[in-house]
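Treating backbone geometry as a discrete language has practical consequences that deserve illustration. The amino acid sequence and the backbone structure tokens for this protein are reproduced below.
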Amino acid sequence: MPIDFVALAAALLSGLFGSLHCAAMCGGIATGLGSCGGQARGSFGVALRVNAGRLLGYVLAGLLVGALGAGLLQLVDASGLGTLLRVLSGAVLVAVALRLLDVHKKYKLPGGAGAGLWRWLAPLQRRLLPATTPARQWLLGMLWGWLPCGLSSSLLLAAWLQADWLNAALTMAAFGLGTLPLMLPLTWSGVQLGRRLAQPAWRRSAAALVLSAGVLTMTAPWLLQVPALQGVLGALGCRGH
């Protein structure tokens, strides 16, 4: 399957600007994990390993749900199912865009689906503490990536609805890369970039792009029927299943 660059761009922007909503929670977690190497103020190496583990956790989750979605698409050979999944994937991106516009945090994305899984993983997280070795730091970061969160759960749902393991894994990788500038604790770039991204104009611009990506994803199966648009949409990786 072609790589869906529209979904990747939306996931990257969602991670970059959406992580501002999670700064109160994830920022504290990042700072705490950044010092798990035994240093009071943490180190960039520890922070990098923990966040790399978190990114790997996102990718593995995307790979898993993408494979499940592809299996469902093959198992249920119903006419129009692929188109329906793509429309739903676009609808999820639209919901994420609306969340980015919600400065006062009145609109919440559903994140309770992973609560049951996290109750099962929480004891394993406690066993990894204190994470004083690189291996433990990587594993702790992977578990952090599976912490229930409305934003990451929504992107994971969009990844599953793509019904393609490669695009799903790349979508979650793009989302994780987008969160790195803010989630890498105790670094100059994270602090300074976070202040800039908090400006309303930047957030509105990102939300508009994610919203456009969601609408394009939803309408791609029909737009691909227009000969003049087939080449452009094909280059972007849009498909109609």
About this structure: The CA atoms of residues 181 and 190 lie 5 Å apart.
